[in-house]
Amino acid sequence: MTDLPWLAPEPDPTRPERRGRRCSRHDWTGEPPTCRRCGHPGDPARLRRGRRNRARGNEIEREIGRRLGLRRVGQFGGPDDLAGELFAAQVKSGGSFPERLWSWLKAVPVTAGQTALLVVTDAPGPGRRRRAVVVLDIADWIALHGPTEADDDR
C-alpha cells in the first residue's frame, strides 16, 4: 500500500518544512538578538524601530491626555487609552491620520465665535440606522472645554 505515490508523497525540496508556531511575543536576548522561547533570530534595526515607534506612540498618548485633562489608562492595548469623568478616548497616530477629513474640516468657513465641525455619516439603506461621527480640531476642543494645566504652561 505504501507503493502508491498518492498515499505517501515525497517531500518537495522547493518547499521547506513548516516550522512550529512562533511565539505570540518574543523574548529577545543576546547579541545578535534571538528569542529565548522559540529561537527565532531578530533583526536589530527592526527591533530598534519597533521600540522607537512604541515610545513615540506612548508619548503622543501622554501629551494628548495632558492637553485634554484625561488620565492614561490603556497603555496595555485595551480599547481605551485615556479616561476622565466624562470622556474615554482612543488615541491613534501615524498612518491612520485621515488627511481627507482634515482637509474637509479646515475648509469649513467660520466666523468669530463659531467652531468648525465636520459630521461624517453613512447611508446604509432601508431598515438600517444611520451612523455619524463628529470631527473637530483638538485646539477647538480645548477652547470649548477649557485649558488644562499643561496648556497653561505653553
- Relative helix content: 25-40%
> How many runs of DSSP E, i.e. beta strands?
7
Number of domains: 2
* SSE pattern: EEHEEEHEEHH
Q: What structural category arises from helix and sheet content?
A: alpha+beta
Task: Determine the mean pLDDT.
Answer: 83
Quaternary state reads single chain
Question: What are the segments in which pLDDT stays under 50 over at least 5 consecutive residues?
Answer: none
Radius of gyration: 25 Å
Overview of this protein structure:
With 154 residues, this protein is of the alpha+beta class. The chain has helices at residues 44-68, 99-106, 138-145, 149-152; strands spanning 28-29, 34-35, 71-72, 82-83, 88-89, 118-121, 132-135. Strands 3-4-5 form a 3-stranded antiparallel sheet, covered by helices on one side. It has a two-stranded antiparallel ribbon with strand order 1-2. Strand 4 and strand 5 (88-89) form a beta hairpin. The protein starts with 27 loop residues before the first strand and ends with a helix. The relative contact order is 0.08.
